[in-house]
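haha ok so turns out i had the wrong file open the whole time. this is the CORRECT one, sorry everyone. sequence first:
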Amino acid sequence: MAVQFSRRDPGKDSMADDTYQPALPQRILDRHGARVLSPSTSVVAAGWAPPRPTVYRSASLLIPEDILRDGEILAVINRVLGEAGLQLVLPPPLARLGEDLLPYLDYLDQLPRAVALRVRPGAPPTEVDSWTGLQRLRAAASGEQPLLPPAVVARISVEHVLASTVTITGTPGSWESSGVGAGDSYVRARVGNRIPVALAAEPPHRHPAAEVPGRRPVIAVVDTGIAPHPWFGIPNRTQAPPAGGFLAVLPGLQQAILTQEEYQANWQPTQFLLDYWDAPVSSEPLIGDVDTDTGHGTFIAGIIRQVTPDATVLAVRVTHSDGVIYEGDVLLALWRLYAQVRYAQQHGDPHQLIDVVSLSLGYFDESPTPGGYTGHLAQVVGHLIHHGVLVVAAAGNDSTTRRFYPAAFASVLTLSIDGGPPVLSVGALNPNGSKALFSNDGSWVHYWATGAAVISTYPVDVQGSEAPDHTEPSPNLPGLPQRRDGLDPDDFSCGFAVWDGTSFAAPLAAAKLAAALLKDAAVDPNLGLAATDRQVMVDRATAASKTIG
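then structure:
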């Protein structure tokens, strides 16, 4: 595949933000086996520049599948790591992650796997740190007679911890609360900057499938999963989304993600994503606060339903309710979606195609070059767009110009002439059209959409421990109501909420792209959605991207 990656100078971007990194509470880091990479204290292999700040899982490396199948290379890798008292613990074969992956194994030969590190048996007490292990491998790949091929080590990285793009951080706030500052205008609740609202509206009309030209466009929302809501025909958590409904899920992929996490949990703290349901409501059950990202995926689905009700949302759960995402889970999900598209194109099955991927997540890369990034996420995003899938990514809520990936691939990912549409990076606007104070910005943010004070669907079964600020007891007089309350800030039984974030600007753009695909298919037979040819997908995706770019 003719995909190339380039590193460009950031141009007008401020270099003052190169070291910006949100401050995650230690309890969040500990919960997920993560740590912050500090430029001032991290070890660095000879010849490598000091890294920029990032967050990574301390006991896992990302190693592509084809390298894991090379016994000779693995033996050398373990010999090098063994000098630091460490060794790899190989993950289960792909075929053991579930039957869902079996049809796609031929397309997954370069899938980066999250590979656990442990203390080598017989070694003295040793700190398990994947960054240190990676520097050992880099050192072994340098010099005139390297022990390891440099091209192999260049494809190994730490497993980054990504964050959703709903929590407002940076100058306007912090990881869990707004603090005091210019961002206070977006604060509505103690945690999560969202409150319940009433919406007197029916779900936007969805035409029967027979009236949609070719087929329904599919938007894959890689996020927190789904939850009950009447707009989507899901009354409770015991019933899967109805067949042919607005929401669809991939239970087999969710099982593969869970199996991967169960393997990792043997070697580092790991929270499980049990299935496609957005749960738990709270990761602190004794306190009962609604987690920062509870309802995130349902809110996104509602935005898409409002804009393009004739689309289908394919919900894939990778985001934990506290907003933390493991890079290995994201890569598994995106590679699986890419493999499904390849399979559909090769077998002429339009019902397996995916048209848009919406990503309200990201991370800051440790690469010391101004526009640098590690290659795993770039590679799979490149595969998707090369095959005609539109990729939309939120710019982040940190009030910084530091490049936030995957959104920043909009500037640094280049394709050959037979490639595909650009990555669409989306910043947030206020309702009046001005740029939201919390939104990241820079030369790499190419599109803007409303992302502040957005109203959309929210799980009807979510109620936290917050109480109304005032309650009037019943006076026990005939004809008077039993009680009068102030607003309960975390009782969402109404089914709707108002929320802020580039998290919601990105799916708005994704929905507009899907609407453009439908419109183009209705007027131009050459852009019909029933066609599975790669070049046709590239052409229609490129045409749709030009309508909103």
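The radius of gyration is 23 Å.
again sry for the mixup
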